[in-house]
Design goal:
The protein is of the alpha/beta class. The protein has 2 domains: about 170 residues, 3-Layer(aba) Sandwich (Molybdenum Cofactor Biosythetic Enzyme, Chain A), CATH 3.40.980.10; about 80 residues, Alpha-Beta Plaits. Helices cover about 40% and strands about 20% of the residues. Helix 1 packs parallel to helix 5.
Length: about 280
């Protein structure tokens, strides 16, 4: 089967210098390792050289000290975790590391208010609505932040540009952060490498064991890091779950070739592990 290029996004940054190579590092604040590993795999598939995860305790001073060191060395730094109701040391640390003020961000405030007001109404709240105190750290962001909406939770994310590099901060929840990365962060980190095309297909299996399919994803990440495979719980048929496969490229022809090869390798890995799947015509 011949695949065609899909999933392109237009350049949104005007004329900028595209790098042939770029390095990235993912910082894992305690309790966010699953999200951090997902982000690292995504960045490798896009084309980044990604060093090992760095784990750090959820304290402003520890995160800030680490970020000051990493920002000088990497083109993209992503912090997962340390952003939750009642405490957002990652936002404070990012502001300190970049020498920026921590300010009330009106866009973040609006998004946080919408989230809490929805919860208030769903729980049968009546009378005047008041934003809880625990929400305050979520809308005090480093000055100049690009706000990443979070459609599934209270904590927004941020993108900070500094000298042509990006610092990204995301909540710890994989359900929230992975969707935020795909929907918002992707276009920024891909722009540095000029990787403006992507294509995604679902290889549908006849098994329901998500853990078994996760092993397939792990094997592919180890053998073929340019293939981004994942098991999304909302991708399934009457017979079983699917493996979602995404590839990235700079040119349409390259993208089509990569997607065709990726699907073939995924199917071979499924066969190797004895997993029945629905063959494409």
């Amino acid at each position: 089967m011949k695949y065609t290029a899909i999933g392109a996004f237009p350049p949104i940054f005007g004329e900028r210098r595209v790098k042939e190579e770029a390095r990235a590092r993912v910082v894992c604040v305690a309790g966010s390792r699953v999200t951090a590993e997902w982000v690292a795999r995504r960045l490798r598939a896009i084309g980044y050289e990604v060093d090992d995860l760095v784990e750090v305790e959820p304290s402003e001073s520890s995160i800030s000290l680490l970020l000051k060191d990493l920002i000088d060395k990497y083109d993209v730094v992503v912090v997962t975790g340390g952003v939750e109701p009642g405490s957002a040391p990652t936002f404070t640390a990012a502001a300190e590391a970049l020498g920026r003020s921590l300010v009330v961000d009106e866009e973040a405030l609006r998004l946080v208010e919408e989230h809490y007001y929805t919860l208030y109404r769903e729980e049968g709240g009546k009378g005047a609505f008041r934003l809880p105190e625990e929400a305050e750290p979520l809308f005090k962001l480093p000055e100049g932040s690009i706000v990443i909406p979070n459609p599934r939770g209270p904590s927004p994310g941020v993108i900070l540009e500094e000298d042509g590099k990006y610092l990204v901060c995301l909540p710890s929840s994989p359900l929230e952060a992975c969707e935020m990365f795909e929907d918002e962060v992707d276009q920024y980190v891909r722009s540095l490498l000029g990787v403006n095309l992507s294509a995604t297909v679902h290889v549908m299996t006849r098994v329901w064991d998500a853990g078994l399919l996760a092993r397939v994803v792990e094997e592919l990440a180890s053998k073929e890091p340019w293939i981004f495979a994942q098991v999304k719980l909302n991708v399934y048929s009457e017979e079983g779950r699917g493996v979602t496969v995404t590839v990235f490229a700079k040119e349409a022809e390259e993208l089509s070739e990569k997607l065709e090869t990726a699907v073939k390798l995924v199917e071979e890995e499924l066969e190797r592990m004895g997993i029945n799947y629905i063959k494409r015509a």
